[in-house]
Known about the structure:
Layout: E1 17-21, H1 25-36, E2 40-45, E3 58-61, H2 62-71, H3 74-80, E4 82-84, E5 86-90, E6 96-101, E7 113-116, H4 118-132, E8 135-138, E9 142-147, E10 152-156, E11 161-164, E12 166-169, H5 176-180, E13 188-200, E14 208-212, E15 218-223, E16 228-236, H6 248-256, H7 263-267, E17 277-285, E18 291-292, E19 295-297, E20 303-304, H8 312-327, H9 335-365, H10 372-383
Parallel strand pairs: 1-2, 1-12, 2-8, 5-14, 12-19
Antiparallel strand pairs: 3-7, 4-7, 5-6, 9-10, 10-11, 13-16, 13-17, 14-15, 15-16, 17-20, 18-19
Amino acid sequence: MADSRTLPQPPTGRTPVVLVIGGGASGNAVTVLLRRAGIAVDLTEVRPDWNATTGSGITLQGNALRVLRELGVWERVQASGYAFGSLGVTAPDGTVLFVAEDIQTGGKDLPATVGMQRPQLQQILIEAVRASGAGVRLGTTAEALDQDADGVSVRFSDGTTGRYDLVIAADGLNSATRAAIGITDKPEPTGMAIWRIAAPRPASVTRTDLAYGGPAFIAGYCPTSENTIYAYLVEACRDRAAIDPAAYADEMRRLAQGYGGAWPEITEHITDPEKVNYTWFDHLLVEGSWHRGRVVLIGDAAHCCPPTMAQGAAMSLEDALVLAELLGGGRDWDDELLQTYHDRRIPRVRTVVEASMQIGRWQLDGVRDADMAGLVGRTMNLLKELP
């Protein structure tokens, strides 16, 4: 595929057309923002259900909420989720060691944190995409991209074709588009894994509490609505092939029984292995530019990190905000503009990825005197600045 280094703005009088590959948080967000700027958008998503039922919970800090407000969905997120402003650290037996006020990275007019059910967030974003008037293809992906000086010709898996001025690859951690345009960076495991489940909310759970130590590195939970939470246990990676999925509930319950506080009540609901998710943590940071010609990466296709700072979704949403701002700003859609997008994002994303990785390494190495609070505080204060 040719790598066009000059990308002239579409001819005056013609509405530019963008293809977004991937209907997760970053793909949905950039679609809505580009449509608001008057740019025509087609979004294609490989999953027929638009990934609307997958996942337990998500933690959205203020800088993520700031983008969701820009998308016009904040009120719905607020109504669907559970807002809180502090973080508790407990001993494995549930004894509260200290409570810290969360930094309001989205500004004083937004909560520090909102927990919500991931499918609820996805459904809100899906409805925003539908309302934007974007074209949507489900159960379909881009099989071939052929770009030249004037645009990108795309062949889809349903046999149809399209012609676009720009392609935005929001197709996630294992992005096929990233590989197709010759970017060889790949995600790598961090050495840690997580067990997750959605469960009813105990009345005592009104914020995220984290226990360090015990049978796992971290035992935590986050309220996701008035009635629900998601709970998680982080341990060293195991061979996934050696764990029978039918035993997932047994394995998570075994680890959870080492914790007190709200955990005994949570553990009562860890019974269905199909509701337990086991995933390795990966990390990725594409070095060098995030585009090749008229194809540009956003979200997990460009970067991801373990959720030790709960900033993965926020970084992806910020990518969408910055890229849409540049594309809708009246500048030529040229190499300089796409490089500007990268240059604005890379220092902030790198800081988050490296801090998230450092926290994980400290735990894997058993470092007891690590300045975790200092690292988190410095990073979160930086995120108060606009992206």
